[in-house]
Amino acid sequence: MDLLHSAGFASYVTELINQQHVPGLAIAIIHNDQIASAGYGHASLDPETPCTADTLFDIASSAKSLTAAAVGLLVDDNDMFPDMQYDAVMSTLLPEDFVMSGEGYTEGVTVEDILSHRSGMPSHDDSYMTVRAAKPDNARSITRNLRNLPVAAPIRSKYIYCNMMYTVATHLVEVKSGQDFGTFLEERFFKPLDMASTTLQPSSARSKGFESRMATGYTWKRANSTYHGLENPDCPEGQGAGSVISSVNDFIKFVKAFMNCEDPINKNVYEGLVRLRSFVNPNPGRRKRHTSPVAYAAGLDIYFYKGHMVVGHNGVFSGFGSRFFFLPDFSFGAVIMGNSDGANGVATTLVQKLIDDLLGVTDERPHDSKSKAIRPVEIRGPKPQAEAKDANPMSKNQGKKEKKKQEKKTQAKKSQGIQKGQVNEQRPKRNTPQPPTMPLSAYAGNYWNPGYHNLLVQIRDDALFIDATDRSMGFTLKFEHVSDDRKFDAHLTDWLDGSDDIVKAEFVIEDAQVTRLGLQLEEMLKEMIWFKKKDGSRRKAHLQFPVVVFSPTLGTTPLFYNAIAQAVASAGYIVVSIEHPYDAEFLEFPDRSNVTAANITDAQVPLGVNNRARDVSFVLDQLSTKDGVAALLPGTGAPGLKARRVAIYGHSVGGAAAAEAMRLDCRVVAGANLDGSMF
Questions:
Q1: CATH for 1-415, among 3.40.50.150, 3.40.710.10, 3.30.200.20, 3.90.1140.10?
Q2: Quick check: 55 and 226 in contact, CB under 8 A?
Q3: pTM for this structure?
């Protein structure tokens, strides 16, 4: 507390933020229930706005502590939620939604596994869709998409930072509590603790009239030595991993309640959250002097420094950085927030200085502007594998991990053995990239992966290009050919901060057709993420297969005959099944009008057979036109199917209709009557 108010501390902080290119920084300290706070620099540069202890920042992954605490409250309430336990299997709590790929994961992953980053699931931060997408993700869709994403390690075998699992945790809270996550936080934490300025999502802060207090996030452009202001979008797809807006004056109240086990954090909740569950890096050689290896509990990093437990978490998002910590032995803690990526490095230095001052340590490395201690190094050891709104949105956004997009992509490059300026180290250097021998149009088209959704490969400025800014951590890819028409380097440019990294890319070519695209989007996986090409000549060729029409029995949907239709289609035919108006029990037309079945008498059956045959002719007319095919098979762009020579089969009355269609329409050149009388 005395240090914060000392004569030289303000100038020391100012020197740090200037060196690390942080426009503004705020600090709040608590010691024995006494709170002091201060702000330094600017919350905004244009117009210049002073940074104060009430300035609002995106706290990024520091918000994971709130998510874990929300789960902890439900675990503690055995009367209302007896099934909510830390060792409860997630799929028993969310049976319809929580399904993971890989044998044993669905049946084995528990609540505490997802809170301690030991589920075996890597970050997959490029897989979730933001509000800019045609189909944005939310907590439930993120949870349901787990089944489509490959795992990277056995359950509980290693620490792998995964923002998504904290979003999954919010879905669990919502399902069990019956409240949306923002309301739960408001009623269970923000109101009881008088955190009146804290909200979930930036739009909520603006709607409450706090926009003038919200800091602008910045990144430093070394090329021209200027700050670049960044957007701070809502990230509902990353809730729980980040996207909480708060000030140091507000968040220190949460730290105080946590540290002192004050309502709503009772002793049972506290003990459940600080239980050590996984080691961030179990290698004892990679740790700071007098410091234990860092462990992860539930939304908390925990390590021991000179015999005293230090509890906290950090957060990094494009344009923002934060860190909080407390030492329960001394009832001492602090919250630090800043508005640039460099704020996390400054916070790391200040945390160490505050702890050393508390413990009276004077024999450590000096904390001056020339000391290595001011480098932006995480106290907890290795950088997390991506973080939710920490790299945008949460990491590639919110966890998008305590990440920052740049940190995540730097890890990716290291894991692939690629350093900037060394991309082509293992192959002969070339002055000018050589274009592929195949035309770029052969690669263009839509590519699909069930977990990562659709990517559209376009041609832009004579190069292959992907616009993936609809992702939570939006990015673009510009491809540079490497070799064999198959291998490419894709230059990944971050949507928010403009940073550029290299992603390995590979196309699969079969029978002179591009069929798949692989991208090294997840550094924790040895294999690429593979996308199957959805359009192109191979798919359009399928539309040239011969057509077979099917007519079902009286009053019956053709869906009952799908097995037969699939068997015929597997032999190389396009099968068109007809729902006959006034015959099927219910039929909806393209204009949304509908008809129900008529009471067809035996005497009317011959007329019905004739009407069915005319239905066949009408359908063939539609299949022969571009508009007709567009209505039945949207997105194919085919001018029409091969409807001049078709075959037909039918069951019962449908069999009689097949014969009648052959008699009336010369386009029907073959037919089969399956157990039908002739009328």
A1: 3.40.710.10
A2: no
A3: 0.73
